[in-house]
Amino acid sequence: MNYLAHALLAGADEDLRLGGLLGDFVKGPLVPAPRGLSAAVVHGLRLHRRIDSFADTHPAFVRSRLRISAERRRYSGIIIDMFYDHFLAVHWARFAQQPLESFAAGVYALLERRPLPERLAQILPRMRQENWLTSYRQPAAVGRALDQIAVHRLRRSSRLGGAGCELAVHYGEFERDFLEFFPAAMVFAESFRAVGQGAVREP
Q: What is the per-residue pLDDT for 130?
């Protein structure tokens, strides 16, 4: 899952949501807690990791990854994360009562008022200016985001650039996969959140 999905699946609690959004930026063990992070934020980090593990083994997500062309298959997890944020934005009203625009504004505001890892702090101004979370409704924006990941996050030359074209090839199938997967992910995340913000065990 990417930013939009993790933000929604973290629930309404701001600390959990922050942890969900930090998941791609905080690596390594969570016991002891990374310096400066509260127990609730760490629980959000755990939730992020558990959601990623849940996705990796869910039949619909696995099917989506197998739809990616062989030349880009090694990056299929990254690609499907972005495609599923697209479908979440498209079908937002099915999964959330708050309008997407106001939800996105709340996420940006949360990130602006909390301490962030350096890499996230660096990209936040562009994230907000370009309104990444709502732009995911447009396939072209998803393609641009994947191109940016290929340039800025991968350390060696890759075939990820241009991967946005894969969305059109199996658009209906990806959409059906997402609509099977995401309700199950919501149930999973809600169950995990119910364990309590003070959980200390590693994923």
A: 93
Positive/negative CA dihedral, 110, 114, 117, 118: positive
Residue 202 lies in a domain: no
> What span, in angstroms and rounded, lies between the C-alpha atoms of 12 and 102?
13
DSSP class of residue 72 equals G
Sign of CA dihedral 137, 148, 83, 24: negative
Residue 78, in any domain of the structure: yes
**Regarding predicted confidence, which is higher, 139 or 35?**
139
Cβ atoms of residues 16 and 190 within 8 Å: no
Which residues form the domain of 83? 3-194
Hunting for tokens 């809600």 — which residue is that? Answer: 190
Number of domains in the chain: 1
**Has residue 199 been placed in a domain?**
no
pTM for the full model?
0.92
